[in-house]
Specification:
The protein is of the alpha+beta class. The protein is 29% helix and 21% strand. It is elongated. The two termini are 24 Å apart.
């Protein structure tokens, strides 16, 4: 079982139970921290398809993962030993359980999730262009905007939106999942596109 360890959580830290663990000053959070610098809803840890991710909830003072500031609402995968810093003051170490580190459940789920998806050349190009900022080695990469993809493809934003709608369908994204960030995550999980850091 994954665990979060830090001085604010006591000597032994806290086991992360369930697929969603919210951290913040509000007592409604699974991990409530009585610190002024922490936002009421500061950070969310989520577990899906065998991977833990950290999501900054547009906190006032921000969050960092391994020294890199998290962009609000953009999930970032957590690895064993990852360091989370909230508001520049509270440090937490993310630790996977021995079974997960040995490739237990997480590896099995990841393999099961890998699927073959048939894409048209246009869909393939749009999907790859979402990662253009990663491929260019930017210090704080992000998923490209529709306008940026359209400009690089020399096409209209409407054509890119149409390709994205088709991609959402092919990657089984429904409801709130139908966005570029979730598409990028699913494409990486299904190994449809090259894995970026």
């Amino acid at each position: 079982m994954a665990r979060l360890v830090g001085a604010a959580l006591g000597d032994s830290g806290i086991d992360l139970e369930g697929p969603l663990v919210r951290i913040g000053r509000s007592p409604d959070n699974e991990i409530s921290l009585n610190e002024e610098a922490i936002s009421r809803a500061h950070l969310r840890l989520e577990y899906e398809a065998g991977v833990w991710r950290a999501v900054d909830l547009e906190s006032t003072n921000g969050s960092e993962l391994d020294g890199i500031r998290l962009r609000p609402w953009q999930p970032q995968p957590l690895s064993h030993g990852a360091v989370l810093v909230l508001s520049g003051t509270l440090r937490f170490d993310f630790l996977l359980g021995e079974h997960e580190r040995a490739g237990g459940v997480a590896a099995t789920v990841r393999v099961a999730d890998a699927k073959a998806v048939r894409l048209t050349p246009a869909e393939t190009e749009v999907l790859e262009l979402l990662f253009v900022h990663y491929d260019e080695g930017r210090p704080a990469p992000r998923i490209a905007t529709i306008a940026e993809v359209a400009e690089r493809r020399f096409t209209s934003a409407a054509a890119v939106k149409m390709a994205l709608q088709q991609l959402y369908d092919k990657f089984d994204l429904v409801g709130d999942e139908r966005n570029k960030d979730q598409l990028a995550i699913r494409a990486q999980e299904w190994r449809t596109t090259r894995i970026r850091g």
